[in-house]
# Entry
Amino acid sequence: MAKTILIVDDSASMRQVVGIALKGAGYEVIEACDGKDALSKMTGVKIHLIVSDINMPVMDGITFVKEVKQLDQYKFTPIIMLTTEMEEDKKRAAKEAGAKAWVTKPFQPPILLAAIAKLVLP
Amino acid sequence: MPHIQNSSDSKLLYGLLPALPVILGGVFVSWQDGATLYNVLFSVLLVFCGIGSGLFLWHRHVNELAQTNFRWAQDESSKIDAVSTYTSELERLLLTISPILSQHVMVSREHTEQEITSLSSRFSGMVNELQQIVDSTDNALGGQQSYHLDTVIDTSRDLLQPVLELLRRIHRAERKVVDAAALSQAEANINQTLILLNQALTHYRDDVEALRNNAEQIRGEINNVLVALQFQDRVSQILTQVENNLLNLQKTIEKIQQQGSKRDGNMLQVDEAVEHIEENYKAVSSPTNRGTDSSDDLTFF
# Structure
């Protein structure tokens, strides 16, 4: 059975790009445009991994990760931050919030897929 | 041009200095020849002449100062008028250009986003088809099938070998029953079949290898296009920032114009505005300047 990955990004085209890369590797994809939208789409489904941007309107990526870690169903779900940010402070904040990996945009699909393969349980 | 000070001290000095030698001359004559009426009158006359010439020079100096200051004030005033006119023209120009620029940027951004979305959609369909081809290449034409054919040929060879041996024995035992020529022909045919099968398998292996290479190339191209699409998305984000900054600039200028003559120099705060704009672009443009080292791209916590 294919693993389901939630993509959270305010840019529709970026969600499509990530979606193409993930679907090509055999994953199922759910898309959300910000943290709040993502939280609403997480109910009633099984999500194996989350790929989230940081700079988003309504709810930013770091707040979203903190919210996810409060949910019993998803507190152990691995989260990858996919962002243009490169500042160490932001990385530290993401790590403290509970993110498992940090991938910088623009990303090379094999790098993202390698990170996902390492974090998604078989 | 420096502004000339017209202080009371300078007036006094300027008036008295030319008169001083004449006054001293009158006093000296009075002192040397005694205080006769003629000498006193002469001295007084000299003193008055000195004071008069001093006052005349002072008056001329004051006039010169006044004229110089007037000319300076006129120059400065014309410069201020020119700068003011220039500023007003700039403001008018910016107000005219800003909405047009903003509109152009907005249209460019919309076009870029439409292109990206359209390209992504088309590309998504293409990728799915290519992926299916790649998967079928890997699965249907991959190692398992190749192994299976190898096994079939080996098994066929193994199976045929005892049959051939048996036929040879029969041929040796009952030469009259089995036709030697037919047996030889059958054996040759079987060997020929095996050779053809081997050749087909070799070609087949080459095709599989070529297809695998093609699949890898297609994967590489897909990845390149996905990276290119991300840069397109970045362009769209930068255009959004440009659009926002133009709108903010327009609002600021309109605010300044509404203030009219009451405005002060600190209202625009150029440094702060520029810093804010730079910060906006820094976030969206920084990844394009990063190194190519892939270790920067992925960090595990």
Summary: Residues 1-85 of chain B form one domain. The mean pLDDT of chain B is 73. The helical segments of chain B are 8-33, 37-140, 143-173, 180-259, 270-285. The beta strands of chain B are 298-300.
